[in-house]
Amino acid sequence: MGLVDIHTHIIPDVDDGPKNFEDSINIIRQLYQLGIDTIVATPHKRRSFFSFDDKKVIENFNELCGMIVERNLCVKLYLGAEYYFGTDLFEDINNNSPFVIGNSKYLLVEFKSLRFSSQDKENLFRIFTLGYKIIAAHIERNGFNSDSFEGIEYLKNNSVLLQCDLMSLSGLWGKEAKSFMEELIKRDFVDIISTDVHCRDFESKLLSEGFGILSSLAGGAPEKYMGLGIKKRLGLL
Ligand SMILES: [Fe+2]
After folding, report:
1. What separation in Å is there between the alpha carbon of 79 and the centre of ligand 1?
2. How far is the CA of 207 from the centre of ligand 1 (A)?
3. Of 154, 86, 170, nearest to 123 (Cα)?
4. Ligand 1 centroid to residue 196 C-alpha, Å
């Protein structure tokens, strides 16, 4: 059974991911070689950094899906987005048209930190009330501080799934993120591990290293974080 990667930047020319379709196909091939057969494309939706054009994202996604079929790649591709917790997310929620993961009610959301103000909690409560569910993106990169586990407990109590980046294990985001992620795995707080690939030259080495470390941490079974259970939970079958 193939693995699932629910956080990737593989749609060309829409964020800081690949610049063209051939580069996108190359990343998809690399992910497939690592055992991944289901991928969610999650371009950044954060207006202060990237101009997310809904129409262009959908067009390029559809074209990429067509190329996957043409080239006989045994990979299923789904669409989502990586929202920054702020205006873009709240507007799309208000318009009842957020970029959910596939056909699920799950949204991939990057938080500024693991400290949640009462306003943050109010905003999250509204999102939950409308039936949406949240996956917190790369929480190991939120910085470890004295309140971190309080924040994690708050997320867990609200059924937020916690996602970490595979390449944090190979040191991409520094020693602190790596040791925080290892601690989160040890305490069994991590629900999902994903690549968060961006089509950068150095990534293939870090991805292989990350898988090696994950396999030893997870007793040889990365499926717990990237396998059938995650596919079923998010309806990616
Ligand atoms: Fe990302």
Report:
1. 13
2. 15
3. 86
4. 5
Assign residue 200 a region: left if phi > 0, alpha if psi is -120 to 50, beta otherwise? beta
What is the rounded distance in angstroms from the CA atom of residue 135 to the CA atom of residue 165? 13
Taking Cα atoms as reference points, which of 135, 138, 201, 136 lies closest to residue 167? 138
233 C-alpha to center of ligand 1: Å?
A: 20
Please tell me the distance between residue 45's alpha carbon and the centre of ligand 1 in angstroms: 10
- For the domain bounded by 3-232, which CATH number is listed? 3.20.20.140
Ligand 1 centre distance from Cα of residue 76 (Å): 19
DSSP reduced 3-state for 110:
strand
- Give the model's pLDDT for residue 1: 59
pLDDT confidence of residue 59 = 97
Domain ranges within the chain, ordered by starting residue: 3-232
Report d(CA 31, CA 38) in Å as an integer: 9
Please calculate the CA angle 226-46-171 and round it to the nearest 5 degrees: 45
- For residues 192 and 42, the answer to whether their CB atoms sit within 8 Å is no
The answer on pLDDT for 158 being more than 90 is yes
Q: How far is the CA of 54 from the centre of ligand 1 (A)?
A: 17
What would the mean pLDDT of 98-119 be, rounded to a whole number?
96
Burial of 41 by CB count in 10 Å (0-12 exposed, 13-18 middle, 19+ buried)? buried
Residue 232: exposure state from Cβ atoms within 10 A (0-12, 13-18, ≥19): exposed
User: pLDDT at position 143, please?
Assistant: 81
Cα 194 to ligand 1 centroid, rounded to whole Å = 9
The Å distance, Cα 130 to ligand 1 centre, comes to 25
